[in-house]
Specification:
By secondary structure, this protein is an all-alpha fold. It has helices at residues 2-6, 11-16, 20-26, 51-75, 79-114.
């Protein structure tokens, strides 16, 4: 999607979009940052080594991603971009559902062990 948006962009369009600094450092290549330009870091990944705590973290991450896609959908008028973002948002909903099923399964297994 980023490549599609940037592929035919002129230098003037890049400047107007506020991406001159990005272009100076990375041209039209991807460089993973959040919406305010902070670089991606592995500290975004949360893990405790406890399956229940980790699954709750995964569930929260999926909901945060879904909310972000919804925000991005509201920020664009481009139908093709909305279509892509809607697909990605729906994928996060499915991920949330699968993590929820895993959590139920893990909790059932842990409850069985407690009573044996």
């Amino acid at each position: 999607m980023v490549y599609q948006l940037m592929e035919n962009a002129t230098i003037e369009e890049i400047k107007k979009a506020g991406l001159a600094g990005h272009y100076a450092d990375h041209r039209k290549a991807l460089f993973y940052t959040d919406a305010t330009g902070n670089p991606w870091t592995a500290t975004y990944i949360q893990a405790k080594g406890d399956p229940i705590a980790d699954l709750h973290e995964d569930l929260a991450a999926e909901q945060k991603a879904r909310a972000t896609y919804e925000n991005l959908i509201h920020l664009t008028d481009e139908p093709e971009i909305k279509e892509i973002l809607t697909f990605l948002r729906e994928r996060e909903v499915v991920h949330f559902q699968r993590f929820g099923e895993c959590l139920d399964h893990i909790q059932e297994k842990m409850d069985m062990k407690k009573y044996k």
